[in-house]
Amino acid sequence: AQTVTQSQPEMSVQEAETVTLSCTYDTSESDYYLFWYKQPPSRQMILVIRQEAYKQQNATENRFSVNFQKAAKSFSLKISDSQLGDAAMYFCAYRTRGAQKLVFGQGTRLTINP
Amino acid sequence: GAVVSQHPSWVICKSGTSVKIECRSLDFQATTMFWYRQFPKQSLMLMATSNEGSKATYEQGVEKDKFLINHASLTLSTLTVTSAHPEDSSFYICSARDIEGYTFGSGTRLTVV
User: Which of A69, A88, B35, B76 could be joined to A74 by an S-S link, Cβ 3.0–4.6 Å?
Assistant: First the structure.
């Protein structure tokens, strides 16, 4: 069974600095998707970034970028120029191409210090 | 972008009563929807996958008779918590498959007293 592991229950960073959230996953599949979701205090799940496994280029969305290491089964999220509004729970998620459901990691709570 | 509307956002009910939560895709057709339960400071736990026009697929350990799911149209899925008890108190979230991936509702806080 596929599993997603986020080894950092909590992280904190100074405003305007850079932080990296870790995610590893276990799968025997070669074609899959990876996601980072943000859940702010409102609890609305928001897609931050997604990566298709067949694409070697790391996805980027403005201040958010990923370091996708397929061989190592690692999918870390880098947040540059951290802002107070980035404070949230961040969930890493995985889906096999042929499957419907997402597999979520345990989450990392990110605190931004002003 | 895609929008999923979930109602109510919070509900308080008496023990033994039933509560219905609605999840609507507003600007797209969702053949597949998902229902999650989230405990405080924990991740999302998938309860069931709802497919339009067919029976829901429940995850192991989820009581089908307690958590009734209906997906009668391409834009609406409902979760009914039957004979609710205090241990059913939780945060419930729905999600729908769309072109980009998944869009989530804003969640429902259920409190059973």
Answer: A69
